[in-house]
Every structure is written in C-alpha cells, then in structure tokens.
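Quick one, tokens below. Sequence please?
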C-alpha cells in the first residue's frame, strides 16, 4: 500500500455498544480501496494518547457504567485530544463518545459525568425514556442522506462552532426537539448512529479518510480517492 495512517481506537475495549467496532472494519474496507494501510491501536484506561502519533481517531458508544469510568480517565487525555482536534485531526465519535467530547453528560440515574469540553455541546437526561429506533438524516451542505439506528437516553444540545451532522428526516436525533442530529466541528464527526454508522454510510468513512490523508500528506493529490464510488451497501 502507498499510504499508511495511524488510527487510535479510544477505549475500544469499553466503549463498543451495538457493534461500534464495525466502524473500524468499515474504515479498513474503504482504506484498502484508497491504497491506504491502517495501523489501529486501542488506547484505553491509563494509556497515553499523544496527538502527534495519530492521523485519525474513533471513539465508540457505551453504557452509563462504562461511561462513568471513561469520564474520569479521559480527563488525563483531555489536553492531547484537544490538540488533535484543534489541529484538524479527523475523529469519529458515536453516542457515549459524542457525549464525552462535550461539556458533560447526565446519566439515567441523574449522575453528572464530566466531558472534556473539546466541543461545545452538553447532554441532559430524560425521565424514564430512551430514543430507540431507525433514523434518517440529511446533511444540507453535501446533500448526503445518512441511515442509522439510535438508542440513547441522553439529549444533546450542540453549541458554538458546531453544525449538525444532519437534519432529522425520521427519528429523534440529538434531543427530540430541535431537529438536529450529531455534530461536525473541524474534522470531528459526531453522531448517535449505531448500525454501525460507517457500514451504512460510506460517504462519512470517505470524508474521514480523505481528511486524514490530506492532513498527513499535504503535497499529494487525493482527487482520485475523493472520487471513489461508495457502494450502496457495504
Ligand atoms: N449507546 C450509547 O452509547 C448510549 C450512551 C448513553 N449511555 C445514553 O444512554 O445516552
């Protein structure tokens, strides 16, 4: 393979609800077609995340119990994660991962867990209810439609500098109120979609990989990779 990218799978052993690890398999599938080899490393509790060592990161969803543990540990990685994000590092964060990149998450039992505040959203609890079901959204900038399955109790409200990943066509989205789903900030893509998201929405995998390639190899031309057709089903 011509290119190599280093991928950090953040808390891959703890944050993996509904087969979110399938996102790593899907990334590999698309990377191969782009002539890219991925070196994937799980970075978990008490392990160091050095922003400069990685070209792409993935942070999956989790249950409240795992999130209480991760919410503490991730504070030790906060500065380097913010460095990675602010320098344009591509990162995909799903559900619990999405919540912990923001200011805080209030769990089903009312416990307030700190996030790292790298992105300007916050997540409230809801009373004895979860948003569960198939969801469809549309990204207004690209015109792309994304399909997924949501299952979350948290209600997220996005903030300064964040655009939604899409507008809700069907389903609940971030909070069931404002019609937004997910968030985009710089090269960070957040969503409540399981499914996993990248197996059903190859366009997002392509955006992440192309962003990582352009950032790591600024002198090369990736128009061919950008033009890669995305199969209807993975
Ligand atoms: N699937 C998930 O990652 C769920 C995240 C969080 N525990 C919630 O219920 O909102």
């Amino acid at each position: 393979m011509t290119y190599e990218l280093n991928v950090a799978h953040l808390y891959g052993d703890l944050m993996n609800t509904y087969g979110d690890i399938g996102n790593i398999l899907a990334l590999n599938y698309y990377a191969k077609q782009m002539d890219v080899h991925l070196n994937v490393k799980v970075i978990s509790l008490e392990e160091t995340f050095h922003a400069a060592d990685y070209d792409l990161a993935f942070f999956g969803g989790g249950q409240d119990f795992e999130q209480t543990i991760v919410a503490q540990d991730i504070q030790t990685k906060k500065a380097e994660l913010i460095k990675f994000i602010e320098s344009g590092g591509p990162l995909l964060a799903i559900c619990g991962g999405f919540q912990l990149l923001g200011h805080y998450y209030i769990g089903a039992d009312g416990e307030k867990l700190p996030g790292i505040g790298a992105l300007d959203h916050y997540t409230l609890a809801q009373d004895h209810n979860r948003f569960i079901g198939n969801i469809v959204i549309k990204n207004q900038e690209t015109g792309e439609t994304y399909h997924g399955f949501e299952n979350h109790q948290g209600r997220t409200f996005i903030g300064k500098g964040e655009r939604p990943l899409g507008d809700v066509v069907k389903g609940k989205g971030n909070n069931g109120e404002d019609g937004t789903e997910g968030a985009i900030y710089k090269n960070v893509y957040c969503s409540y979609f399981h499914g996993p998201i990248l197996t059903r929405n190859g366009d997002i995998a392509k955006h992440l990989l192309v962003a990582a390639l352009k950032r790591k190899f600024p002198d090369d031309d990736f128009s061919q990779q950008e033009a890669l057709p995305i199969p209807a089903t993975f």
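The chain has a mean pLDDT of 96. The domain at 3-226 is CATH 3.40.50.880 (Rossmann fold).
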